[in-house]
Amino acid sequence: MSSLLEKISFESHAERLMEVLTRDGVECFVTTTMSDIKWATGFTGSYGALIATEDSVELITDGRYIVEASRSVRAGDVTTFVIPMSLHETLARRLREKQVGVVSLDEAVSVGMLHLLQKELSETSILTVPSIIDKLRHVKDSAEIELIREMCLWADECFTEILSSVQVGETEQGIARRITDWIVGRGASNSFSPIVASGPNTAMPHAKPTMRELQRGDLVMIDFGVSMGGYGSDLTRTFVLGSTVEEWQAELWHAVAEAQAAAIEAVVPGAGCAEVDGIARDILRSHGYGDAFVHTLGHCLGGGSGKLSPTSSLRLAAGHVWTIEPGAYLPERGGVRIEDDVEVTSEGRIVMTSAPRFLHLD
Fold it and tell me: For the residues 233-258, what does the mean pLDDT come to?
C-alpha cells in the first residue's frame, strides 16, 4: 500500500499551483491550511504556512517539524524555512525579501493572522481570496484516483466482514470498535470516527455510537471510511436487523435508495452540483420526505471543499470524486442513509464502492 502513496506526485501538484498562478496573474498566494499545504508539498506536520508564486513554492514551519519536513516534503522545488520568530513575522519577512507587491491570502486564515500581516506589511496590498489550492484539489490525478479506489475496496471488505457477525445484543460502540480495529490492523486510519446507530438513534445523521444494544427490528446505520495519506473512502449502509420489517421502514428505505440511484445516474461531466442534489431531493419530496432530508447530497472526496448542495454553483468535472448520500430522518423513529463514492469520468461515472445493500439482515 505504501507503493500507492509513493505514486502521489507532490512535485506535479506544486507545478500545477504555479501554472495556475501564472495563468491567472496572481503574484503570490499564501495559506496556513495544512491539508492544502500537504497537497502542494507532501508536508505531514500540523503547523506552518505556504508561500507560492509563479516560480516558487516555500514551506514555513517551526523547529518541531524539521525532521518531519525533511522526510515528508516530496516536491523537489519546495524550499523549507524554519521559523526563527513568530509565524506571521517570518511570513512577513519572506514576503518583503521576495518584494511581493500584492498578496492573495487564503480567506481561511484567522482574522488575527490577517491583522498581524496587515500591520507588518503596511506597504503591501493584501487581498483575501478563496483557496486557490482547494479549487485544484477537486480534480484528482490518476495516482490519487488509484489510492481512493483502493480505500473504497477496503471499505467494502471491512463492511462485509463486520456485517457477518452483527447480531442482536451487540452494542453500537462494539461495532464501531471492530470497524476501527479492522482499519488500523490494515495499516490505515479512519476517515472519521465511525457512525454506528440503531433504532431511534438512526434519526440523528451524525449519531455518536452509544452502549445501546441492537434489537431485532431495529434500523441499523453504519457509516465509516478508510483513509491513507489523506485520501479516503466514505460508505454508509442502513438495514433492518431481522426479517420482520415494518411498513414505514420499508417505505423510507426504498425512497432513499431510489433517490440515490437517480442522483448517481445524473453524475456526468458538466452537471451542476445543485442540479444533482435537486434530483435526489425531489424524489424524497415526492415520497413525503422532503423535510426529512436535512443535509446536502454529498461532498468531495480526497480534497476539495465542494458540496452537492442546493446552493452550490460548482459543476462536475472529470477527476472529481463525490459521495452520493441521500438520507431521510424521522425523529424518535429512525432514519435511513445510503452512501457510495462516485468518480466522475470523461464518459460519465464509475461507482467506486460496491458493498452489499439490502433492506434487512436476517
Answer: 98
Residues 6+ apart with CB under 8 A from 316: 267, 268, 269, 270, 271, 272, 273, 276, 322, 344
Rounded Cα distance between 156 and 226, Å, is: 10
Q: Please name the fold of domain 2-137.
A: Creatine Amidinohydrolase; Chain A, domain 1 (3.40.350)
DSSP letter assigned to residue 245: -
Cα separation, 204 vs 117, whole angstroms: 42
Q: What DSSP state is assigned to residue 270?
A: T
Fold of the domain built from segment(s) 142-361? Creatine Amidinohydrolase (3.90.230)
Query: Using one digit for the tens of pLDDT, what is the confidence trace for 205-223?
Result: 999 999 999 999 999 999 9
Axis-axis angle for helices 111-120, 87-97 (nearest 10): 40
Q: SS3 of 345, please?
A: coil
CATH 3.40.350.10 location in the chain: 2-137
Which H or E element spans position 158?
helix 142-163
Give the separation between CA 157 and CA 225, rounded to whole angstroms: 11
pLDDT digits (tens, 9 = 90+) for 331-352: 999 999 999 999 999 999 999 9
Alpha-carbon distance 157 to 163, whole Å?
Answer: 10
| Cβ pair 330, 195 in contact under 8 A | no
Q: Is the separation of the CB atoms in 209 and 194 below 8 Å?
A: yes
What's at 157, amino acid-wise? E
HSE (side-chain half, CA atoms, 13 Å) at 306: 28
Helix axes 172-185, 142-163, angle to 10 degrees: 140
What amino acid is encoded at 107 in this protein?
E
Instruction: Enter the C-alpha cell of residue 354.
Output: 460496491
